TrEMBL record:
Gene Ontology terms for molecular function: DNA-binding transcription factor activity
Name by which UniProt lists this protein: MarR family transcriptional regulator
SUPFAM superfamilies found in the cross-reference section: Winged helix' DNA-binding domain
Domain of life: Bacteria
Organism lineage string: Bacteria, Pseudomonadati, Pseudomonadota, Alphaproteobacteria, Hyphomicrobiales
Stretches assigned to the HTH marR-type domain: 18-152
Organism: Rhizobium altiplani
Length: 154
């Protein structure tokens, strides 16, 4: 019976194995993320935390909703991502002046962490760029910069 099931799935298996963008992009993401995680480990943060700190620093004070939109994250995922950064004191939520949303900003310790970890990020960047090559690096950056949220109008 198991053999029959495998045979009936052979078309989809072959199709996915030969060209699934999701499978390939997740594999690339895991490998590249691991490179950054290894380099940033000595600073007490991982690649996704570093990326989130950079996003918050770039936005210069933004609501959770704005951060989520900029980083293509839903509210639940964003809350989980922000929690350790808040706990470590790398970011802060400022008090509101009557509005509902509290702006999230990078703290002084978060700015110091980014500066201290910059050489590790540069080394990870060098290793990742070497792994994917110049053409691959340009392709990844180009695709990422052209992405539009699925729920945004085209």
């Amino acid at each position: 019976m198991a053999m029959d099931r495998r045979d009936s799935n052979s078309d989809i298996v072959s199709e996915v194995v030969s060209g699934c963008l999701m499978t390939r992009s997740r594999r690339i993401s895991r490998v590249i993320t691991n490179i950054y995680d290894q380099e940033l480990r000595d600073y007490g943060l991982n690649a996704s935390q570093f990326s989130m700190l950079i996003m918050i620093a770039k936005l210069g004070g933004a609501s959770r909703a704005e951060i989520g939109r900029a980083n293509f994250q839903d509210r639940t995922t964003l809350t989980r991502s922000l929690a350790p950064l808040l706990a470590e004191g790398w970011i802060e939520e400022l008090p509101t002046d009557g509005g509902r949303s509290r702006p999230v900003v990078i703290s002084d310790s978060g700015k110091k962490l980014l500066n201290d970890a910059a050489p590790a990020w540069r080394e990870a960047q060098r290793k990742a760029s070497q792994l994917v090559g110049d053409v691959g690096a340009k392709a990844i950056i180009g695709v990422a910069e052209s992405l539009q949220r699925v729920d945004e109008p085209k």
